[in-house]
Specification:
This protein is mainly α and 332 residues long. The protein is built from 8 helices and 4 strands. Among the domains are: 39 residues, no CATH class; 67 residues, no CATH class. Helix 3 runs antiparallel to helix 4. This is Craniofacial development 2.
């Protein structure tokens, strides 16, 4: 017997019948083999559209930053102050996003790192010209091919130069990281979570329930037994922490202490946008902080967080007690 039907073990139960078809002549001394399968396919779920990520780095330019502050000032002049924390926070976030959108174009998705913005613009023009002017489409297609070749050569020349510079300066961390990125090899991430009995979760509901059990045990534990431990003797700071209402200068220092390059929260406002607002944004932000202080209430979107599991080296599956930390979306 020379002819077989190979099937993955996962779909073994889907195989219903296999037979040799003696009638058809395929120019061979073998017979055709027909297999009958029955698959159960799940309905595809349409994912919610993601909001485009703005290129906040554009606000580092002095002229763009000035235009951003002017647009922000005009927007705030039309917005009245709100008495609610959530409403005021939403107004400020929407004003920042609407003012930054014309100056910070969305970050385009690239299949290759060496494709330039100019080349992507030509691709968009070629797409529009396909059904309108075919000659224009062919010309743009030729221009795109030449530009891609130029961008690709320039990119690899720069990569080679960076590798030579890193090797000459003995920066082996940069050298090996660049080589690893170029090789395309990445470690697979296993997000399996174990239950308390050692078995793995099988559904989203079980995953959420396991997280709930973990945090209930983390924060609602029994008080320690025995006599209380005497706290260490510490000297009082020369300047005591004030319990008065936050000042504009304190808000200004907190804004300038924000780190760039961090992921924004649910409001999609990055630290670069808050810093670029300057003196135009600070008074309005100060009013929001004072409102939070008086009402003793934090905006709902600031309390949202993302749970990111950290996998321990050498383990194929992680336990929930070893793998959680929060990346808060609060901006203060």
């Amino acid at each position: 017997m020379l002819d077989y039907v190979l099937i993955n073990t996962r779909f073994r139960s889907s195989l219903q019948d296999v037979r040799a078809m003696r009638g058809p002549d395929c120019g061979s001394d073998h017979y055709l083999i027909r297999a009958r399968l029955r698959l159960k396919l799940h309905c595809a779920k349409r994912a919610a559209p993601k909001s485009p990520r703005l290129d906040w780095r554009q606000l580092a330019n002095a002229d763009r930053r000035q235009e951003f502050q002017l647009a922000l000032s005009n927007r705030f002049a039309q917005l009245a102050d709100s008495d609610g924390v959530d409403e005021e926070e939403q107004k400020i976030a929407e004003a920042i996003i609407d003012s930054a959108r014309p100056l910070c174009p969305p970050i385009r998705r690239r299949t290759q790192l060496w494709i330039s913005e100019e080349c992507l613009d030509l691709v968009a023009k070629r797409k529009k010209a396909k059904l309108v002017d075919f000659e224009r489409y062919r010309q743009l297609n030729r221009d795109i091919r030449r530009m891609m070749k130029r961008d690709r050569e320039a990119y690899w020349d720069q990569v080679a130069h960076d590798l030579e510079e890193a090797a000459s300066r003995h920066e082996y961390r940069t050298l090996y990281r660049t080589l690893r990125d170029l090789s395309g090899k990445s470690k697979s991430i296993n997000d399996n979570i174990k239950k308390a009995d050692g078995t793995f979760v099988r559904s989203t509901a079980e995953r959420l329930q396991r997280w709930k059990e973990f945090f209930d045990g983390l924060y609602n534990h029994d008080p320690p037994q025995g006599p209380p431990v005497a706290p260490p003797v510490t000297d009082l700071p020369p300047v005591l922490m004030s319990d008065a209402e936050p000042t504009l200068e304190e808000v200004k220092l907190a804004v300038y202490a924000l780190k760039n390059g961090k992921s924004p929260g649910l409001d999609q406002v990055a630290a670069e946008g808050i810093k670029a607002g300057g003196d135009t944004l600070l008074p309005r932000l100060h009013n929001l902080i004072k409102l939070i202080w008086r009402l003793d209430k934090v905006p709902t979107r600031w309390k949202k967080a993302i749970i990111i599991p950290i996998h321990k080296k050498g383990e194929s599956a992680i336990t929930i007690a070893e793998s959680a930390f929060f990346q808060s979306s609060a901006k203060s």
